């Protein structure tokens, strides 16, 4: 055993864990508190060891990564549900399915991604992932009130507050949402909740643009190979009136599509006004779900690098983007495409929280 291994075993041996599906690493830990996670990250910085935080493994971007240390969130658990305040404080390792089941008992929801599989709450926040209901409720980052984070240089910071109206200090909860673990590890968070509608329905329609014009605050307007559906929730009278106005076949409940899966998966983002053109370009190439009114199309299939490059060129020409979210070994395209104009600022932010660059180095756009 090397001197480093001996030191690691002495300091962090109680957190050693086997985490199925996680990347191969020299050390894998599952801390139980933010302070424990920060101690591990402090050690990693001191010894220049790369780190990957790991939740359910459902929101990985880029090629497979071989870190020195994997830090799992599976022991960062606990749900403090405050239904009267419409908030919940939840550990990063809690599965989305488990959290939403608890909230549903009081008719509330955190509006996290539907059909999340093994995704954890921390993983959703770190990835900046939003569900299909974004059209009505906005992205996940808009509902994140507070975060507790172990930073890449071993500090524990608390940002935001556990109240719905909170404007104190810098908006660090939004900064950490979508940071993909590059600044540190979100260990606990407070999320704003919404009541679930008393009645819900899924209405099949022919025209997405017409549906957006007719429906009042729909949860979503989604298009797949099977057609266009409008998702409604509210009082029974509201849902019935909107279903009649839309003129389509209504089915009780919300029948969400599964996220498309394939050898290659991309997310195409453009202005909502360009969605019809976006769908026309990708619809023949694989399975897809297009979120009208939001400006996002998820596509998966066995398409080539040339096809992705063509879509990316068009998207970037209209100020959009194409992100490759899954690809086989040897797929040479950069996951992100054109680096953002804010790259210098992003590097400065990265250095403020992870000055030695140990947290998933190179994962962000531009190799940050």
Characteristic terms for this protein:
5-stranded antiparallel β-sheet; 18 strands; 8-stranded antiparallel β-sheet; single chain; 368 residues
Tell me the fraction of residues in β-strands, as a range.
25-35%
Instruction: Give the SSE order as H and E letters.
Output: HEHEEEEHEHHEEHEEEHEEHEEHEEHEH
Largest sheet report: 8 strands, antiparallel
Q: Spans with pLDDT under 50 lasting ≥5 residues?
A: none
- In whole angstroms, how far apart are the ends? 34 Å
Structural class: alpha+beta
Give, in spatial order, the strands making up the sheet with the most strands: 14-11-13-12-16-17-15-18
Label the overall shape: globular
* Average pLDDT reading: 93
Number of strands: 18
| H/I helix tally | 11
* Helix percentage range: 25-40%
From the alpha-carbon coordinates, what is the Rg to the nearest angstrom? 21 Å
Question: Could you explain the architecture of this structure?
Answer:
- This protein is an alpha+beta fold.
- Helices cover 27% and strands 26% of the residues.
- It has an eight-stranded antiparallel β-sheet. It has a five-stranded antiparallel β-sheet with strand order 4-5-9-7-8. Strands 1-3-2 form a three-stranded parallel β-sheet, with helices on one face.
- β4 and β5 (87-91) form a beta hairpin.
- The longest helix has 13 residues, at 34-46.
- The two termini are 34 Å apart.
- The mean pLDDT is 93.
